[in-house]
């Protein structure tokens, strides 16, 4: 079905570790690829390892980023039959598309730098002259190559004639572009010190990407302020326009969604909500992870957990540390 194809990036996160994509016939064995992605796989076999790695990162990063929210990316667990909240054009699917697009380009850009891809190398040396005491060197992340190859792969399902509704395609293409834009803004100057005994009289610098978890946090902010859109004729063709303020066009840097999400409080398979029963909550928090908000007013049960930690550590001259093990009991809370 189109919906499953549509999530090809996530489907790849379940590729068994023993499956090494080193022959063109292996491309057919990868779950959820559309024909143009299979072609891309055949002509860039070594790129597929990087893309599969990116898919696994998306899953992990999404779950970490939303660990304190009612929707905690649980939808990603259930592939290939992804839950309806990712199929209905909700703000959750907006986030996952944006993160997937960013992650694929991010992983490719970094793989160029580490030498894992033979088809590319370090990013270009910046044209601007750094200030005194700084010089360009090192190996910058190859963002350009990451963006070119990443968008080819990520956007392929939405560019197929048969696939899904036009509104959904426009939404996914827009949100994927937002993800890549956040990635571009995550390029920063990174430096290494040189000089007599670490005096740092000269620094060698390059342009590198922030970690994916930082990019995911930026996208989470955009998720929280996402704009609901409708698909309606504008001039000669149908476009997405903000539902409540259709006097302005959709902004290039905002995530957009077509359908409102459930509150994710209780289980509803039709809407793709797994509910928050048995989720851990924070009794002292006032945020989204508070027991009140997380448990949707149903209350919570306490339980205790024993933690074993290193303690009473002593430094011995020279040069080792000895520690004891201490046990402490902490109280935790789960939603009813």
UniProtKB/TrEMBL annotation:
Keyword annotations for this protein, in alphabetical order, are: Developmental protein, Disulfide bond, Extracellular matrix, Glycoprotein, Lipoprotein, Secreted, Signal, Wnt signaling pathway
Subcellular location field? Secreted, Extracellular space, Extracellular matrix
| InterPro entries given in the database record | Wnt (IPR005817), Wnt_C (IPR043158), Wnt_CS (IPR018161)
Task: Note whether Glycoprotein occurs among the keywords.
Answer: yes
A GO biological process of this protein is:
canonical Wnt signaling pathway
| Pfam families linked | wnt
Q: Which GO terms describe its cellular component?
A: extracellular space
The molecular function GO annotations come to:
cytokine activity; frizzled binding
- Provide the family line: Belongs to the Wnt family.
Tell me the function of this protein.
Ligand for members of the frizzled family of seven transmembrane receptors.
> Mind telling me what this protein is named?
Protein Wnt
**Organism in which the protein naturally occurs:** Scleropages formosus (Asian bonytongue)
Query: What is this protein's gene name?
Result: WNT11
């Amino acid at each position: 079905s189109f919906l499953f194809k549509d999530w090809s990036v996530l489907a790849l996160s379940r590729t068994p570790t023993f499956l090494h994509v080193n022959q063109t016939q292996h491309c057919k064995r990868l779950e959820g690829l559309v024909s143009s992605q299979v072609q891309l796989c055949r002509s860039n076999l070594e790129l597929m390892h990087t893309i599969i790695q990116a898919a696994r990162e998306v899953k992990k990063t999404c779950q970490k980023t939303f660990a304190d929210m009612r929707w905690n990316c649980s939808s990603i667990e259930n592939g290939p039959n992804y839950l309806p909240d990712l199929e209905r054009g909700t703000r959750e699917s907006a986030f996952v598309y944006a993160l997937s697009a960013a992650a694929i380009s991010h992983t490719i850009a970094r793989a160029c730098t580490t030498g894992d891809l033979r088809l590319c190398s370090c990013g270009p040396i910046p044209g601007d002259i750094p200030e005194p005491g700084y010089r360009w060197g090192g190996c910058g992340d190859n963002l350009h190559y990451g963006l070119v190859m990443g968008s080819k792969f990520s956007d392929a399902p939405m560019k197929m004639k048969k696939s899904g509704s036009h509104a959904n395609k426009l939404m996914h293409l827009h949100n994927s572009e937002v993800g890549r834009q956040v990635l571009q803004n995550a390029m920063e100057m990174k430096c290494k010190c040189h000089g007599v005994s670490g005096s740092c009289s000269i620094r060698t610098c390059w342009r590198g990407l922030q970690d994916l978890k930082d990019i995911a946090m930026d996208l989470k902010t955009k998720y929280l302020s996402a704009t609901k859109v409708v698909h309606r004729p504008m001039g000669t063709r149908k476009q997405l326009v903000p539902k409540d303020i259709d006097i302005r066009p959709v902004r290039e840097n905002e995530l957009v969604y077509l359908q409102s999400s459930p509150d994710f409080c209780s289980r509803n398979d039709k809407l793709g909500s797994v509910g928050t029963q048995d989720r851990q909550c924070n009794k002292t928090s006032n945020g989204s992870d508070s027991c009140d908000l997380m448990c949707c007013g149903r209350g919570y049960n306490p339980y205790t957990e024993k933690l074993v930690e290193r303690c009473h550590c002593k430094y011995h001259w020279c040069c080792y540390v000895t520690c004891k093990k201490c046990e402490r009991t902490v109280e935790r809370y789960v939603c009813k």
